[in-house]
Design goal:
This protein is mostly helical and 197 residues long. The protein has a single domain, classed as Orthogonal Bundle (Tetracycline Repressor, domain 2). It has helices at residues 2-20, 27-33, 38-42, 48-67, 80-96, 98-110, 115-142, 151-171, 176-194. Helix 7 crosses helix 8 (151-171). The mean pLDDT is 91.
């Protein structure tokens, strides 16, 4: 039961922090939304900061499990179409998984306040994606599926517009389907441009 309550606290904290930011969320409102009193929250977490750090730890684990990490890189596709399919699976997951959407919103808000949030935002919005696709493109070049080029620069050029489209979905959810279609069109254009001749 205690574990369930801790998980409920973290899930609700993620929702509230992603909407109101850290400073705009107080423990009394968090507790009330769970049907608890403040002491019920403090029974599981000593402070709001402890909730915040536990939430960041949980987000890191969730991203690593569902999206990939340096220890769990995606397999190198066996065809250009495989790259498009893999990319679109990632985009679909990223824009439709509520936990990932709330995490991205939270990191966007809090990156200017919290050093750990800033580092995670940089990793998940830029460097982690570039590293992941550097591995993918290097492997595709070795398989003769992409023409030889600097895989890190290609990864940067590939992930930046897709990442921008994902952030557009957060700001303007009504444009989600159009943004997904544009990401797929871009992926296909990339394959056509950089595919091995």
């Amino acid at each position: 039961m205690a574990k369930d309550t801790k998980e409920r606290i973290l899930a609700t904290a993620l929702e509230m922090f992603s909407q109101n930011g850290y400073a705009g969320t107080n423990i009394r409102e968090l507790a009330a939304s769970l049907g608890l009193v403040k002491s019920g929250v403090y029974k599981h977490f000593a402070s709001k900061e402890e909730i915040w750090n536990a939430l960041l730890d949980e987000m890191i684990a969730y991203y690593d499990e569902h999206f990939g990490s340096p220890e769990h890189l995606p397999p190198v596709p066996d065809s250009p179409e495989g790259l498009v399919a893999m990319t679109m699976r990632m985009v679909d997951f990223t824009v439709r998984d509520e936990k990932i959407v709330m995490t991205r919103k939270l990191l966007t808000i809090e990156q200017f306040r919290d050093e750990r949030a800033r580092a995670l935002a940089t990793k998940h919005f830029l460097t982690g994606l570039t590293e992941m696709f550097t591995h993918v493109f290097s492997g595709m070049m070795d398989k003769g599926l992409l023409r030889r080029d600097d895989p890190a620069m290609l990864a940067f050029a590939y992930t930046a517009p897709i990442s921008a489209l994902i952030h557009l979905c957060d700001r303007e959810p009504e444009k989600t389907e159009a943004a997904i279609a544009q990401a797929e069109a871009f992926s296909r254009h990339f394959v056509k441009t950089y595919g091995a001749m």
